[in-house]
Amino acid sequence: MSTTKKLTEAAILSSLFIVSTIIAVGSGLGYGIYLDFIVPIFFCIICLKCEIKYTILSSVSSVLIVSLVLGNIGTAIWISQGMMIGILCGFLLSKSTTILDDMVYGSILGIIIMIFIDIYGSALIGYSFMQEFQGYSDILVNKFNIPRNIVDIAYYMVIGLFPFGTVFSIYYLSLIVGKKLNILKGNSKKKLLIMQSFKKCGRFICCSKKVFYGCVFFIFTMEIISILGIKSNNIYIKTVLMSAKYLCYYFVIRDGYTAIQNFILSKYQKISYARILTLVTITLLATMFKITAVILIIFNIILDTKINIRIEQINIINSYANSLVHK
């Protein structure tokens, strides 16, 4: 009975999506906010309410019907990207992972989704925004004499930050909408309460040990590949790997710094020490980025070995979220 109910709800919501999309896109009002935000939020909500298997079935049937009715392949591709991002966020929200783990998984998978859609789009409509971006990079190097390594870093960071920002926005907005619709439960409800209480418990939000050291391993692997001079001429593979590397750097540095700061605050109970740590870390990152990242990683290995600082932080967050749930 439960299966039939969820399948029926997914079908009803799918029908609602098809009608609203045809009206919005057909009238010319659907581009932008609708396709970038409403579509992924809609399917994130379906995923939270009806489970992922029914959401995938709903998304496939919806995009096929919309593409056949509108006859616009470009719009169908755009909708597909929004659907995949929405389903990804819904899946992550339903899991018992930490919020920062969700951001790591979501951002890296978001890059892969974006690349997949770009390949798909370039094959069907002959346009690739990544190849166009690469063309702009060549202009900056050849016309404005900006060093290639700086342009490449900026390019990969933009490609990495775009899905990160998109996933975070859909993730949080879906929680807000889910609360209004009263469909949040279990892990998704806890994650909303944690995000709403960010000022009180934000400094304890961290990656799990598995994700943190997974990012560390990926960074070291990429750096070794770079030292050995191994390169890929495929623009898509190179973009995925390099963008993921800079995202991993961000999460490792952010998480590593926060863990050290929490240790200092708990041990010495002095905010001035934490502020000094912030100034020193920023200065070192600006002058010796990779060396500073290694130092942060080493300190985190020590803290995890001696006091299991990540497990302690996750336990604090879980205890706080559970207390809010039972209020």
Automatic annotation (TrEMBL):
TM stretches of this protein: 7-25, 76-93, 105-130, 153-175, 211-229, 235-252, 273-303
Tagged with keyword Nucleotide-binding: no
Ranges in a coiled coil: none
Keyword Membrane assigned: yes
Keywords linked to the UniProt accession: Membrane, Transmembrane, Transmembrane helix
Organism domain of life: Bacteria
Name this polypeptide is given: DUF2232 domain-containing protein
Species annotation: Romboutsia maritimum
